Amino acid sequence: FYRLFPADKQLVAASKVWQYRIQGKQPWIWISFPDNVPWKRIEIEPLSDLHIGARAHNAKRLDATIRRIKENDNVFTFLNGDIIENALGDSIGGAVYEQNMRPHDQAIYAIDKLRPISHKILWALPGNHEWRSKKHSDIDPLYWICRTLDIPYFDEPVYVDILWKGNVFTAFAQHGATNSQTSGGKLNAAAKPLYFQDFVMFVIMGHVHDKKTDTENRICRERVFDKDGKLASFHLQMRKQHSVICPSY
């Protein structure tokens, strides 16, 4: 006696419409979207601080975000750390008692939850909650989530170049670290990379369970090259730089 079960379509990941290249061993990813898509814009909605497995995790809100990403061809996302709660025995306070599933099950749940949009997750990096396991055993659960779902993974903050229709959109993404409770303190923490790096359009941070943006004018170097790749002109230009704090779940 044999029984044939129907194939689970969720197990088959859709193909990526974008291509990427990681620049050697550097934390830098180059993402290229095709020009022949009928979109007027690309939207990137971050998935940061999901804390899957925590009692306070808002599953309904996460489902709504995943549904929006899945149903709109021009909407993409990235994972900005603390995807699972991953509370361990030595975690601060009583965190280990404030999760409703084991870390092992949290990772499996995250894989099942993210699989329908895995082809739209542009990159991923861990937060301090994943780093708990890294510190104890050199194992990052987010790495295995990304390996299973074929998501570009970095174990540190990452520089991002997104190319589309002759434009280059630049970003620096980090999970972040601060204990600040004030709006100004959180934005100052998000803006720290502005003072040690070259110009990027967006500096992105999570960690503080808030959603905020700020804009600064910065002087940047503008280089123009001719068709042969030779430097045609060089001048300084004032450009807007946006600090973005991702909301949590």
Describe this protein's structure:
With 249 residues, this protein is α/β, with parallel strands linked by helices. It is 21% helix and 27% strand. It contains 5 helices and 10 strands. The mean pLDDT is 91.
Sequence-ordered SSE layout with sheet pairings:
Layout lengths: L18 E4 L5 E5 L10 E2 L14 H13 L3 E5 L23 H12 L6 E4 L3 H10 L3 H9 L8 E7 L2 E7 L9 H9 L10 E4 L6 E14 L5 E15 L4
Parallel strand pairs: 2-6, 3-4, 4-5, 7-8, 8-10
Antiparallel strand pairs: 1-2, 6-7, 9-10
Helix pairs in contact: 2-4
The largest beta-sheet arranges its strands as 1-2-6-7-8-10-9
What's the SSE pattern? EEEHEHEHHEEHEEE
Structural class by sheet pairing and helices: alpha/beta
Radius of gyration equals 20 Å
**Helical proportion, percent range:** 10-25%
**Mean pLDDT across every amino acid position:** 91
Note poorly predicted spans.
none
Q: How many strands, which pairing sense, and closed or not: the largest β-sheet?
A: 7 strands, mixed
Described by the principal axes of the CA atoms, the overall outline is: globular
Strand content: 25-35%
Number of strands: 10
State the end-to-end distance.
47 Å
Quick summary of this structure?
The chain is built from 5 helices and 10 strands. It is an alpha/beta fold and 249 residues long. α5 (183-191) links the parallel β7 and β8.
Can you give keywords for this protein?
249 residues; alpha/beta; seven-stranded mixed beta sheet; three-stranded parallel beta sheet; 5 helices; 10 strands
